[in-house]
Every structure is written in structure tokens, then in C-alpha cells.
Hints:
Layout: E1 5-8, H1 18-33, E2 37-42, H2 54-64, E3 74-75, H3 80-92, E4 96-99, E5 128-131, E6 140-144, E7 148-152, H4 154-157, E8 161-163, H5 171-181, E9 186-190, H6 197-207, E10 213-217, E11 220-221, H7 243-254, H8 268-278, E12 289-290
Parallel strand pairs: 1-2, 2-3, 9-10, 11-12
Antiparallel strand pairs: 4-5, 5-8, 6-7
Helix pairs in contact: 1-7, 1-8, 5-6
Residues 9-11, 43, 175, 189, 193 line the site of glutamic acid (GLU).
Amino acid sequence: MSGYRGRFAPTPSGPLHFGSLVAALASFLDARxxxxxxxxxxxxxxxxxxxxxxxxxxxxxxDAYGLTWDGPVITQSARDAPYQDALTRLAEQxxxxxxxxxxxxxxxxxxYPGWCRSGPLHPERPLAWRLRSDLGARPVSWHDRLxxxxxxxxxxxxxxxxxxxxxxxxxxxxxxxxxAEQGISDVVRGADLLDNTPWQLQLQAALGHSQPRYLHLPxxxxxxxxxxxxxxxxxxxxxDGDAPRDHLRxxxxxxxxxxxxxxxxxxxxxxxAAAIAAWQPARLRRDARRQAADPA
Length: 296
Ligand code: GLU
């Protein structure tokens, strides 16, 4: 056993698109090249944003691209108890506090100004829970495998929400609890999450979890320079016919892996086997990548 355990953790707010394929593929190749495991976690902590059945669509898409995961799939919406337990432990340490403020009330500030730190200003309102980013470990630092040394003061980023006033768990808390519980050694994900990592490091330290290694990936952007995302209506990854073969090759190109010419159009299993053997994250360039034009 290599001791490597990676994961892909999509939010099922819509089907996977090309940008998600690139993130899934990089984390898959990194895990398999290391002889490690690769897990799938469905991050549906925000059910109103996640149409029912989308988790199944995502599994079907991953299957069509040969990205097979190990072990059971964790679904965050079914995991209230471990998140509540983590929040209780943070609150007991004075690192989480209830907050009654609405976004509108602090809209003139760049970050939430911490008005409820010594008690909610309006205890009768529904309460969210926030992290005391000023009292946790700071600064936090890590060596990002692509972006190099990173050092942040989480307090400058603000007291992030851990539980929303509607009772929904935040991504930051759930991802830290689940990465620890699943024994994730390596996080490989898009660079749009790089500036979320400081809060996650602070939460790991407060909860006594070890810090995984991080590799943040260059973002895939559309021709207009915008991040590919479901909000920007990035098209769903096709699963039929030869489309997965073509898209897989384009994803390997987007990851600077120079797939061999003779494998163009080859079955996904053959392309993946070669890509696992040849995986070199050192080839990644840090700049955002334009999505290649659709093949004619
Ligand atoms: N669920 C997050 C997303 O789909 C990714 C979380 C992560 O990889 O840490 O953007």
C-alpha cells in the first residue's frame, strides 16, 4: 500500500462539465500513479442547489470516462452527526460562535466584521455559526505542489460560516470533517479553492486532524475568459459514442500531459493506462487554460 488516498468531491448542482473532468482526471491520475486509492464524495450540503438524481448522473459520467473510484461513496447530506460533533468541539474551544447578522447588514465591509463574537446581537433571530478566524492557528501555511509556498492569515479572510442560519452545513466544515474521516492524504482540486484552504487548515488544526498535501490545478476557462462552471452554463460532459475518448484527450492536453499521438481516438481505458504511467504533475503550468475549441 502506498499510503496515498485521494478523492474527487463534486457538488452535484449539475452534471460534470469539462472543467470538472480536468479536476477529476488530475486527482485520479495522481492517485493511481502513486498506487493509491481514489474516493468519490458527493458534496450536497446545499440540497436546494442540488437537483435530485444529479449524483447518479455524475457517477454515470465518471464511469463513461473510466474514472473508477474505490470503496463506498460518501454523500454529505446524510451526515449530520459528524458535522455537529465537529461544531460542538469548536464551540467548546471558543472557536465557533452563533451569529445573527444578515449579509445586508455588513455589506459595506469587505469581510464580516465579527459583531457577534461576544454574543449574538439579535439572539431571537435564526442563528448561523461562524469560525473565530482570529483565535485559531495563524498564520497558516502549506507547500502547494503547483503554486509553491502559501502563507495566509485566516483572520484577514474573515470569520467564515460553518453552519447557515437555515441549518445547512457549510462546505468548509464538511470538507475538513470528511477529508479527515476518509483519511485523505492528498487533495487535488481547482485553484478556485486555493483561498479556501487557509480556513480548512485552521479547522484541521483546531480539530486535531493532520494536514493533507495540496495540489491546486490551473483553472479551465471558457473562450470569454470566465471560469467554466455550471452557473456559466458550461455544457455537460457527453457520455455517448466516441465523445468521451475525445474529451479525455483534451483534458490530458489541458493538464499539459502531452498524450501520445497514436492514442488519439483510443478507448478511454487505453488512454488512461498510458496517462497513469506517464503522469507528471511537474509539467503543469500555473496559468489558466482556455477550453480547447470543440472538435469539428
Ligand atoms: N465540492 C467542491 C466543488 O465541487 C470541491 C471541494 C474540494 O475538492 O475540496 O467545487
